[in-house]
Amino acid sequence: MMERDSLGNLPTLTVRDGYTVRSYREGDAADWCRLISAGIGGNYTEEAFRQSTAGDAGFDPEGLFFAEKDGQLVGTACAVYRDGVPADMGYVHMVAVDPMHQGHGLGRALTVAVLHRLRERGFKRAVLETDDWRLPAIRLYLSLGFKPVFRHESHEPRWREISEKLGIA
Fold first, then answer.
1. Could you tell me which residue, 3 or 42, shows the higher pLDDT?
2. Contact at 8 Å (CB) between 141 and 114?
Protein backbone atom coordinates (compact mmCIF):
# COMPACT_ATOMS: atom_id res chain seq x y z
CA MET A 1 0.00 0.00 0.00
CA MET A 2 1.17 3.51 -0.82
CA GLU A 3 -0.29 6.91 0.06
CA ARG A 4 0.06 10.43 -1.32
CA ASP A 5 -0.66 12.79 1.56
CA SER A 6 -1.83 15.71 -0.60
CA LEU A 7 -3.49 16.21 -3.96
CA GLY A 8 -2.16 19.74 -4.12
CA ASN A 9 0.69 20.58 -6.48
CA LEU A 10 -0.07 17.80 -8.97
CA PRO A 11 2.00 17.46 -12.13
CA THR A 12 0.42 18.54 -15.40
CA LEU A 13 -1.11 15.76 -17.48
CA THR A 14 1.05 15.26 -20.56
CA VAL A 15 1.08 12.48 -23.14
CA ARG A 16 3.46 11.70 -25.95
CA ASP A 17 2.57 12.58 -29.51
CA GLY A 18 0.15 10.12 -31.02
CA TYR A 19 -1.47 9.23 -27.69
CA THR A 20 -4.52 10.72 -26.00
CA VAL A 21 -6.20 10.16 -22.63
CA ARG A 22 -9.97 9.99 -22.37
CA SER A 23 -12.68 8.82 -19.99
CA TYR A 24 -14.83 5.69 -20.18
CA ARG A 25 -17.45 5.28 -22.90
CA GLU A 26 -20.11 2.60 -23.26
CA GLY A 27 -18.54 -0.34 -25.04
CA ASP A 28 -15.09 0.02 -23.42
CA ALA A 29 -15.53 -2.96 -21.06
CA ALA A 30 -14.00 -5.55 -23.41
CA ASP A 31 -10.92 -3.39 -23.95
CA TRP A 32 -10.63 -2.81 -20.19
CA CYS A 33 -10.63 -6.60 -19.70
CA ARG A 34 -7.94 -7.05 -22.35
CA LEU A 35 -5.76 -4.32 -20.85
CA ILE A 36 -6.09 -5.52 -17.26
CA SER A 37 -5.45 -9.14 -18.25
CA ALA A 38 -2.34 -8.19 -20.24
CA GLY A 39 -1.01 -5.49 -17.90
CA ILE A 40 -1.84 -6.93 -14.49
CA GLY A 41 -2.44 -10.59 -15.20
CA GLY A 42 -5.33 -12.97 -14.95
CA ASN A 43 -8.27 -13.48 -17.22
CA TYR A 44 -10.65 -10.59 -16.67
CA THR A 45 -14.13 -10.84 -18.09
CA GLU A 46 -16.83 -8.22 -18.57
CA GLU A 47 -18.52 -9.67 -15.48
CA ALA A 48 -15.30 -9.04 -13.55
CA PHE A 49 -15.34 -5.47 -14.89
CA ARG A 50 -18.88 -5.01 -13.60
CA GLN A 51 -17.95 -6.49 -10.20
CA SER A 52 -14.50 -5.00 -9.63
CA THR A 53 -14.87 -1.59 -11.23
CA ALA A 54 -18.21 -0.54 -12.73
CA GLY A 55 -20.18 -2.21 -9.94
CA ASP A 56 -18.16 -0.54 -7.18
CA ALA A 57 -20.28 1.93 -5.19
CA GLY A 58 -17.56 4.52 -5.76
CA PHE A 59 -17.36 4.02 -9.53
CA ASP A 60 -17.07 7.27 -11.47
CA PRO A 61 -17.28 6.77 -15.27
CA GLU A 62 -15.53 10.12 -15.78
CA GLY A 63 -12.72 8.81 -13.56
CA LEU A 64 -12.08 5.62 -15.56
CA PHE A 65 -9.37 6.70 -17.94
CA PHE A 66 -7.98 5.14 -21.09
CA ALA A 67 -4.88 5.92 -23.11
CA GLU A 68 -5.63 5.68 -26.81
CA LYS A 69 -3.48 5.52 -29.92
CA ASP A 70 -4.82 5.33 -33.45
CA GLY A 71 -8.28 4.39 -32.14
CA GLN A 72 -6.95 1.53 -30.00
CA LEU A 73 -7.17 1.58 -26.20
CA VAL A 74 -3.68 0.84 -24.86
CA GLY A 75 -3.82 1.71 -21.15
CA THR A 76 -6.23 2.30 -18.28
CA ALA A 77 -6.50 3.56 -14.69
CA CYS A 78 -9.43 4.38 -12.46
CA ALA A 79 -10.26 6.91 -9.72
CA VAL A 80 -12.64 5.48 -7.12
CA TYR A 81 -13.71 5.90 -3.52
CA ARG A 82 -13.37 2.79 -1.39
CA ASP A 83 -15.15 1.84 1.80
CA GLY A 84 -12.68 1.39 4.59
CA VAL A 85 -10.46 4.34 3.66
CA PRO A 86 -10.85 7.82 5.16
CA ALA A 87 -13.52 10.00 3.52
CA ASP A 88 -10.92 12.48 2.23
CA MET A 89 -8.88 9.77 0.51
CA GLY A 90 -9.44 8.64 -3.09
CA TYR A 91 -8.20 5.34 -4.46
CA VAL A 92 -6.02 4.83 -7.55
CA HIS A 93 -7.33 1.57 -9.00
CA MET A 94 -6.24 -0.89 -11.70
CA VAL A 95 -3.45 0.91 -13.56
CA ALA A 96 -2.41 -1.13 -16.59
CA VAL A 97 -0.70 -0.49 -19.92
CA ASP A 98 -0.56 -2.86 -22.86
CA PRO A 99 2.96 -4.35 -22.83
CA MET A 100 3.46 -3.20 -26.46
CA HIS A 101 2.98 0.42 -25.31
CA GLN A 102 4.90 0.38 -22.05
CA GLY A 103 7.83 2.74 -21.74
CA HIS A 104 5.97 5.67 -23.32
CA GLY A 105 4.91 7.39 -20.08
CA LEU A 106 1.34 6.14 -20.25
CA GLY A 107 1.28 4.77 -16.70
CA ARG A 108 2.37 8.18 -15.49
CA ALA A 109 -0.17 10.04 -17.64
CA LEU A 110 -3.02 7.78 -16.54
CA THR A 111 -2.07 8.02 -12.86
CA VAL A 112 -1.82 11.81 -13.11
CA ALA A 113 -5.26 11.90 -14.76
CA VAL A 114 -6.65 9.85 -11.87
CA LEU A 115 -5.05 12.14 -9.28
CA HIS A 116 -6.54 15.22 -10.97
CA ARG A 117 -9.97 13.56 -11.05
CA LEU A 118 -9.75 12.65 -7.37
CA ARG A 119 -8.91 16.26 -6.54
CA GLU A 120 -11.84 17.48 -8.71
CA ARG A 121 -14.13 15.23 -6.69
CA GLY A 122 -12.94 16.86 -3.46
CA PHE A 123 -10.49 14.27 -2.18
CA LYS A 124 -7.44 15.61 -0.36
CA ARG A 125 -5.23 12.48 -0.43
CA ALA A 126 -4.81 9.29 -2.45
CA VAL A 127 -3.98 5.67 -1.77
CA LEU A 128 -3.18 2.68 -3.97
CA GLU A 129 -2.16 -0.93 -3.67
CA THR A 130 0.41 -2.72 -5.78
CA ASP A 131 2.56 -5.85 -5.75
CA ASP A 132 6.17 -6.08 -4.59
CA TRP A 133 7.37 -7.27 -8.00
CA ARG A 134 5.87 -4.32 -9.92
CA LEU A 135 9.09 -2.37 -9.63
CA PRO A 136 8.52 0.03 -12.57
CA ALA A 137 5.07 0.89 -11.16
CA ILE A 138 6.48 1.40 -7.67
CA ARG A 139 9.21 3.68 -9.06
CA LEU A 140 6.50 5.66 -10.88
CA TYR A 141 4.34 6.00 -7.76
CA LEU A 142 7.31 7.11 -5.68
CA SER A 143 8.14 9.74 -8.32
CA LEU A 144 4.56 11.03 -8.05
CA GLY A 145 4.86 11.54 -4.29
CA PHE A 146 3.41 8.30 -2.99
CA LYS A 147 5.06 6.88 0.12
CA PRO A 148 5.04 3.34 1.50
CA VAL A 149 2.50 2.47 4.19
CA PHE A 150 3.56 0.06 6.92
CA ARG A 151 0.49 -1.72 8.28
CA HIS A 152 1.89 -5.19 8.81
CA GLU A 153 5.10 -6.52 10.30
CA SER A 154 6.11 -7.86 6.87
CA HIS A 155 5.95 -4.43 5.22
CA GLU A 156 9.19 -2.94 6.50
CA PRO A 157 11.46 -5.81 5.32
CA ARG A 158 9.57 -6.02 2.02
CA TRP A 159 10.02 -2.29 1.42
CA ARG A 160 13.69 -2.58 2.34
CA GLU A 161 14.08 -5.25 -0.36
CA ILE A 162 12.14 -3.16 -2.89
CA SER A 163 14.34 -0.14 -2.11
CA GLU A 164 17.48 -2.21 -2.67
CA LYS A 165 16.17 -3.49 -6.00
CA LEU A 166 15.31 0.05 -7.08
CA GLY A 167 18.61 1.42 -5.79
CA ILE A 168 16.97 4.05 -3.58
CA ALA A 169 17.40 4.96 0.08
1. 3
2. no
